[in-house]
Amino acid sequence: MNAVASMLGRPAAATSSGEPGAAVELRGVTKTFGAAVALDDLSLTIRKGEFFSLLGASGCGKTTTLNLIGGFESATRGTLLIDGRPMQDIPAHARPVNTVFQSYALFPHMSVAENVEFGLRMKKVPLHERRAAVGEMLRLVSLEGYGARRPNQLSGGQRQRVALARALINRPSVLLLDEPLGALDLKLRKLMQTELTRIQRQVGITFVYVTHDQEEALAMSDRIAVMDHGRLLQVGTPSEIYDRPANRGVMEFIGTVNAFRGRCASDAAAGAVVGVDVEGGGTVEGIANQALKTGAPATLLVRPERIRLAAQPVDSGPALRGAVAKIAHLGFVTHCTVRLPDGRDLLAFRLNVEGSRFDSLREGQAVFLSWQASDAHVFPADAQTQPIEAPQAALR
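Below the sequence we write its predicted structure tokens.
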């Protein structure tokens, strides 16, 4: 065990009332504000030591979930456990959690060192222990030598690190992070993403991270819970969420997709390849998300990076014909907009590496579009965004 993890200690093992290996459990939790339902029968398990993200658009319930864990809100119904202990009668200050906010919430009249040690001072930890812990925390967040400075003498990224050190020094079992990078510019946000994942791995504490940024969640998380209107759509690793979406809502929210409306060309069981006769002419293929009947209205979704462009018809599988409308070189990736005969535009992406570029294509050129059937997903056209069943949210 490294020095930082040793200093922070480890959470106590879960009691028999909780799921083994669980840091946080929500069982059938509902939260209402008057007539508004913020969380609707939410069941979720977060494992010890993982970087777990709550992802969704504004109003999906992710911050309400964080506030329930932190003790800033109480559930209308259901059970919340942390380290196997029910939390309904435990006030916020007595819970084994700490929170890092987007606003940092640093004391402007205190130095960096005084901000970091504040929690220990409130607990009346001896001075020599506080100083040793502060020094260890400042090294952890790469702020050695900054202890005497005031918050207004720091950059946004440095203030965020101070807030993180102040939260970690209290040795929480779970650290809650409420969109902590939202106020930073893009370059600094990318840097802090790397720093947060490094720190989480080093200390081994469970991080529960709230964000609406899909790329941020994919880059940082061990697992992600995608939420919508207070319900879980899917829980999984970044690759599971991106490549194997549980439903249409997840696929449309995560990343960029091209959508084709049409009708099923044949009967198909869930998980089977099915052809879709698309509006505007042509047939495309994808994997059926659920059982589909011949002639049933359907929507096929495929990601831009899965689309292949060729100047000649492809021999394997269906292809659509179009014309290059625009090519945009964006550093490491190139975006190609292709216009279909019915006037619709769709996107194809390519990494700018040898043998993979769109260098041979020109605006106005006729092209053929195709993809592997396994890279596209077919959903009933009238499918609603369905939440996952509770067992899928549990430990696996």
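The longest strand covers residues 22-33.
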